[in-house]
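Consider the following assembly input.
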Amino acid sequence: MSTGSRLSRSAGTTPVRSPDNRHRLSDKRPPRNPKRYLSVFRIRFTSSLQYRTAALAGVATQFFWGFVLIMVYIAFYSSSDLEPPISLPQLVTYVWLQQSFLAFIMLWYRDDELFRLITTGNIAYELCRPGELYGFWYAKLLAQRMAGALLRCLPILVAASFLPSPYRMMLPPDFLSGVLFIISLLLGLLVLVAISMFIYISVFYTMSPYGSLLMFTVVGEFLAGMIIPVPLMPEWLQDVVYLFPFSWTADFPFRVYSGHFSRTEAAIGILLQLVWLVVLVTTGRRLMLRALRRVVVQGG
Amino acid sequence: MIELRHISKSFKVARRASGLASAFKALFSREYATVQALDDISFTIQPGEIVGYIGPNGAGKSTTIKIMCGILVPDSGECRIMGCTPWQDRASFVRHIGVLFGQRTQLWWDVPVMDSFEMLRDIYRVPRQEYRRSLEQLTETLELDGLLRTPVRQLSLGQRMRCEIAASLLHNPDILFLDEPTIGLDAMSKQAVRQFIRTINRERGVTVILTTHDMQDIEALADRIIMIGKGRLLVDGKLSELRSRFGSHKTITIDYRAPRSRTTAVRMMPELPGTQVLSMDEERAILLVDTERTNLSEVLGAVSSHLEVVDVSITGQPIEEIVLSLYKEHEL
C-alpha cells in the first residue's frame, strides 16, 4: 500500500494531504492558527483557577505588605521638606496596584511545570505536536498569570478603595486614563511574559532554573520599580532603568493610572511597549529554535 | 512507509572519576566521552505492520524513536517517513504520527481527562465530526466511559495509560510509536492495552512500532522484531523465523522416584549429545535438549531406562529465553 492511498482514507473529512508535493514547512513561519494556542491558554487558565486557597493566602500577604510599604513611605514623606517627585496619593495608588496585579508583574511568579517538562524530558510530547513550542509556552505562562491576577486583584482593589484617607487608593483622574491604563497594563503583561520566556529558554542550556530565575528576578524587579518606585530613584538611575524593558511591565502602567504620565507620554509609552514586545518575542523565538536544535531530551 | 538508512547518532557525556579531587578538577576542565547511541541503523517498515523494537536498556531504542518522531537530529543517515524527513518537515509531519511514552504523561494533571482531549483536538485541528467519531470509538474500545470526567491525578496507572493511549490516537495518526506502553501495568491492564493495539492495527490499519521489555507484548502483538544492542542492528526478522531458528531447544522436566541404591540420580543420568542438564536433584531433573542434534524420544528412553519416571513435561523455549540467548550471543 502506498502512502498516498493511506492518506486518502480520510479524504472525506479532511483535505487530502499529499506528502510528496507538500512544500516544506519550517518552524520559522509565524503561528498561523491562534486557536491552537488559545486552547492551551484555556486549559492552563482553568487549571490555575483551581488554586483558590493559594490565592486567598496571596491576597492576605499582599494586603499586609501593601500596608507596610505605605507606612514606610508616609514616614519618609512626612520627614522630608523637598518637593516629592510623585505625590503621596499617587504613590499609595502605585503600591496598591503593584500588590493587586502582582501576578502580572512579578518575575518570580513561575511555572514549575514548565521547568519539570524540560528537566524530566516530558517535553518530548510537546515536540511531537504540530505548532510552535514558543507559542504553547507563551500561552501557558500568560494563562497562569491571568488566572492568578483574576483571583487576587479584585479583593485587594475593592478593599483598598474603601480604606481611610492616607491609605485609600484613588480612582484614575479621568476615563481616558483608565482606558490607557488597561491597555498599558495588558501590554505590560505581554512584555513581561516575553521576558520570562527567556528564563525558561535558559533552562535548555543550564538544566536548572534557579540560577537564571534568581538573576532575572533580582535585576528585573529592581529595574521594574518593584523595590523602589522608579519616580523615587535618582535621575541617573532612572535613565538606566528606561534602557531596559522591565519598567514597561509594572512602573509605566501604574503611573499612567495615577496620571503621573501625561496622555502624550502614555501614548508614546504604549508604542514603546509594542516595540519591546516585538523585539523580545522575535529574539525569544529565535533563541528557542536554536536551543531546540541542540536539545537532548532527558532520560528514557 | 518508514525507511531508515545508515542512521548514526552519538552523544557527548561529561565524565569524571568519583571523589573530591576530580570534582574540583572538573571545575576547570571537563572530560567528555562520546557514546555511540546509534551506529548505522537501517530498516524499512511497511504500512500496517506491527514491529517490536527490542533491546536491552541503553541499546538506543528510545533514541531511534525520537529520531523517527523528529525530536532528535541524527549525526548522519537518512530517514523518510511517509515522504517526509521528520526533523526537517516537523510541523507537517507530526500530524501523521501518534506517540506514547509509557514513562511520561501528556495529560494535564489537575483537570479532567476530557479537557486534555479537547486541547489535543484543537492542537491537531481535528474537525469536530471526526473528533467525535474517534472519541466514541476510543471510549468504547478502551472503556473510558467513567474516566473522562475525572481529574488525571485521581486515576490509577492502568486507567491513566488507557487515557494516554486514547490521547495519542485522537487525531487519527497513520503511524503509532509506542515506547514501553505496558510499563508498570498489571496483567489485566496489559491484556487490555494489547488487545486494543491489535484492534486499531486491524481496523484502522495503523502501523505500530513498539518498544518494550515485556516479551509477552511482543509475543502477543509483533509479527516482526527488530533487535538492537549497543546502537547496532542485530536482528531483523519475522518472529516465527526467529522461533524456528532458536526454538529447536526444548525444556524437559522429569520427576522420578529417588533411586533406592546409594548411587545418586545424578550419576545415573545418561550423557547424550545436545542435551544439557539445567538442574538436578534427588527427585527432579530439568534438561535442555537441542532437538536438531538429539531426538526427544531418545532422551526420554535413555532416562526412563535408568530411572523410574513419574512425570514428564516438555515445553518449547519461551520468547523471553530466545531473546535472552540472543542478547548473550551478541554479548550485550
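The domain at 44-243 of chain B is CATH 3.40.50.300 (Rossmann fold). Ask yourself how this observation constrains the way the partners meet.
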